[in-house]
Amino acid sequence: MIRRLFPHPWLTVTLIFVWMLLVNKLALGSLVFAVLLGIAIPLLVAPYWPGQTQLKSPLRLAAYVGLVIWDIIKANLTVAKIVLFYPTEKIRSAWIAVPIELTSPEAISMLAGTITLTPGTVVTDVSACGRVLLVHCLHAPDPDAVREEIKTRYEARLKRIFA
């Protein structure tokens, strides 16, 4: 019975949390609406999302979120420095194909979202087989180093988080 009402419990919790952040005030009406959304949206998407996301380690997920927030802060400073102080001809934009070993759609989405949220990089495409991400970098004088950093800093951690 509980599984039918909450087909994706982590999505329910996330939706409630995000809604309360968006509203930006703690009020009973906002909380009730957040709970209604947290129940209704997973029920509506359940037929299109039949599998359960298996997390090996929710604590590692929290550490990953902290790492990503730190990297976003650092990347903001780096991008500001590039935009403000680099001559245009010294900026080395690059398209980089990043082969990935992740198989879970949620893990692949989280990796693509992480890359896109980090200023200076954006995932523009995922191959049809789901094994390669096409990433555009604002400044990548060494594309191999960027590819390796994505694989070691993000993908390796996501492989430990998702089953």
From TrEMBL:
Subcellular location: Cell membrane
UniProt-listed InterPro entries: Cation_antiport_E (IPR002758)
Gene Ontology CC entries for this record: plasma membrane
Membrane topology: Multi-pass membrane protein
Entry's transmembrane regions: 6-23, 30-49, 61-86
Superkingdom, natural source: Bacteria
Organism the protein comes from: Cereibacter sphaeroides
Name of this protein: Na+/H+ antiporter subunit E
Record's keyword terms, sorted: Cell membrane, Membrane, Transmembrane, Transmembrane helix
Family: Belongs to the CPA3 antiporters (TC 2.A.63) subunit E family.
